[in-house]
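Open question from group meeting: does this chain pack into something compact, or does most of it stay loose? Before anyone orders reagents, we agreed to write out a predicted structure and look at it together. Recording both the input and the output here so the notebook holds the full record.
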Amino acid sequence: MSDKFNSNAEKASYGIGLQMGEQLKSNPFEGLNLNSVFEGMKDAYTGGEFQVEIPAIQAAFEEINAEITKRREEEAKVLAAEGESFLAENAKRAEVTVTASGLQYEVLTAGEGDKPTAESTVRTHYHGTLINGEVFDSSYDRGQPAEFPVGGVIKGWTEALQMMPVGSKWRLYVPHDLAYGERGAGASIAPFSTLIFDVELLAIV
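Structure tokens returned:
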């Protein structure tokens, strides 16, 4: 740890910088220049003369936002195509069942309990990954089962849970339109992502 920040004011000021840095890091753009960021902060805080005219700044924002949108659309097309290719190959496996909606599943453990309805609340353990194997959520890793209404989750889960007897463990292969679609979910699930879940139905509560 550095000893440059000794007073509470210095520590708090550094904390503000950390917060701003995290915000910039979470939504960066190509060519982001921290020195320019610092210059703008200084001019705004001290009331100094702006070094770039506001219309020019607005035009730069618009151009960069257009570039970001275009790049995200291109990335989404690639993800959608990768997901479709993965599902097409996966559907050829004998152990995989494909439903009318396009949901794919395989039974890892066959349960013998009751099946929930769309109005039920269930307790499950689950492990969610992207098709590249990257884990984005796992109740197993947290060591705590999750409870939620069957009708309050993504479409692929709602469909699958109503077919699963309590005690079952299934692996779900969820097309993007039965998952988070064109919006994605947070930083971990990009738009048009196909998702894989291991879902263990523990109980109807």
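Observations to bring back to the group:
The helical segments are 8-26, 34-46, 54-90, 139-142, 155-161.
Strands lie at 97-98, 104-109, 121-130, 135-138, 146-149, 169-174, 195-204.
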